[in-house]
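User: Quick sanity check before I run a bigger batch. Here is a single chain. Can you write out its predicted 3D structure?
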Amino acid sequence: MRAVGIICEYNPFHNGHKYQIEQAKKLSNCDVAVCVMSGSFVQRGDVATFDKWLRAKVALQNGADLVIELPVRYVLQSAEIFARGGVEMLKATGCIDAISFGSECGDREKLVGCAKILANEDDALKDKIESLMNEGKGYPVALREAVATLYPHMEEVINNPNDMLGVNYIAEMIKSGADFEVYPITRQGADHRSEKAEGIFASSTAIRNALAKGDDISSLVPSVPDGCRYDTNRLEQFILGFYRTADAGKLKNIPGIEDGFENKLITSAKQSTTLEEFFASLTSKRYTSSRVKRTVLAGLIGMEKETKADYIRVLGMTEKGAAFIKNAKDKATLPFVVKTADFEGNENSSFIYDILATDISSLAATDGKIRPSGADYYNSPVKI
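Assistant: Done. Predicted structure follows.
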């Protein structure tokens, strides 16, 4: 049983995702697709548009065989750490043969070459990044500019969002010793940030915007999600109230907090009247909008830096996925968690943050019946 791993968010799942899974299995000659998917929060710093079980279900209906949750401790951090978490989860199963991801260039050799540059960061690259950050630029911008300056043949790759994410996956594989085959899938149709559809393909951004307007998305997705939508803006009063009363000393332990940013969070919350105003007042060259939003959500769940994901959380499976778990149990380096109540993590486990993220995201539900907490305890993994 060969298995290909896919690190994803499916926010929401669309035709491009279905195409990627199909091609990943075909090109890698794998029987099983294992998807490591963000849970209740996503890496752009928002509540996911649909809950993690519904997103897992749609993925399983369209080619995925096992969906496991990417712990929120990785989701609410930089693209590099997001990639690290995804690779760690796949490696922990002990049974992954390949990894696949969307790519603008589709050039495996070029992507691997760029990944080696990042994984083996030399002194010249470190110095250039540090110099650019001293100018007030955030790490992602400094990294891109440094690579473009020192390795101009990699400029196109470093500036393409999907290519760069793929490069991060490969770099983390190199660092961790994960010996996965690599299969980039050339992205079809619209650009990842485009708000326009191209045929049956559209970006997740475009589909989220269409959903918000009430537009028909049926041609862009395998099936229209039949479930409650979630909207981060519904957390406005909670977020502003939380940070107006927060303890600056405790906020210092949140990943992403540096240079007195904890004090700015509190001051901005006291002065802002809307969530949009709050986020805008915190955004700068060093703190991009996505970084600000990730940091804010991390603060809501009290996420601390020194925690560890000591579990593989199962969100859903097909019969092949169940067979994969059975085969992996003796090879996996972490336990598979199928029932929330049965898991007892170590004292530094990040599991509690996944539960808190779901409980807080429930407050953003458009359906009031969904808002009670505890969904992780009464929702079982999806079985297809």
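The mean pLDDT is 94.

User: Great, the batch can go ahead then.
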